Amino acid sequence: MPPVVPPFLVGLIVAPLAKRLLKPLVRGVVKTSVGIAMEVKKAAHEAGENIHDLAAEVAADMVAAQIVAGDGHRGADGAPANGEKDETAVRPESETRAPKIRATAGVGAGKVH
Questions:
Q1: What is the pLDDT of residues 25-59, one digit of tens each?
Q2: Which residues touch 84 (CB under 8 Å, ≥6 apart)?
Q3: Are 60 and 104 in contact (CB under 8 A)?
Q4: How many helices (H) does the chain have, and how many strands (E)?
Q5: Closest by alpha carbon to 78, among 86, 90, 49?
């Protein structure tokens, strides 16, 4: 019959050995995980910037198109061209339109990196 070794004695011998072998392995796994998480965060930030830039470009193109379309209806002195009525002249002061709020507000504030 083989000698019976109590489990706590096995633990006393195996624990330091496991610590020496597993600590570098766990440390490497954690270090790699943190590195991957930082790369993913950086990639997500860059993708967000690209989407923001694209949205700003589209908004600028839309504003430019509105300006070009608006210039074709006014004369050089700002008066309506081709006998068109000026909408603001027809409406009383209390019914004048409020300016549109554009989604591009704050785009020109600049980027902070």
A1: 999 999 999 999 999 999 999 999 999 999 999 99
A2: 73
A3: yes
A4: 2, 0
A5: 86
Question: In 63-82, which positions are buried (b, 16+ CB within 10 angstroms) versus exposed (e)?
Answer: eeeeeeeeeeeeeeeeeeee
pLDDT in the model for residue 18: 87
Q: How far apart are the first and last CA of the chain?
A: 73
Which CA distances in Å does 113 have to 46, 74, 105? 11, 42, 19
Cα gap 100→17, rounded to integer Å: 72
**For tokens 């624990």, what's the residue?**
15
73 neighbors 80 (Cβ within 8 angstroms) = yes
Residue 61 token pair: 């193109």
Cα-Cα-Cα-Cα torsion 23, 28, 33, 34, nearest 10 degrees, comes to 90
Closest by CA to 63, choosing from 108, 104, 97, is 104
| Residue 104 CB coordination number (10 Å) | 14
- What's at 69, amino acid-wise? A
